[in-house]
Amino acid sequence: MKLNRPRGTRDFTPAETEKRRYIENRMRGTAEHWGYEEVKTPTFEHTELFTIKSGEAILDELYTFKDKGGRDIALRPELTAPVLRMYVNEMSVSPKPIRLYYFENCFRYERPQKGRFREFWQFGVELIGSDSAQAEAEVIALAAAMVSDTGIEANLHIGHLGVVRGLLHGLDAQMQAEAMRLMDKKDVDGLRMLLSDQPGLRDRLPALLDADIDEARSITDDAQPLEELQATLTLLDHYGIRYEVDFGIVRGLDYYTGMVFEMYAAGLGAQNQICGGGTYRLAQLFGGSETPSCGFGIGFDRVLEVCGIEPPHAPRVVVVYLPDVTEDAIRVSRRLRDDAGVRTTIDISGRKFGQQLKHADAIGADYAVIVGAKEVEAGMVTLRDMHTGGQEMIGLDDAVLRIMGDREGEDHPASHDESAFLDLP
Question: Model-level pTM?
Answer without folding.
Answer: 0.88
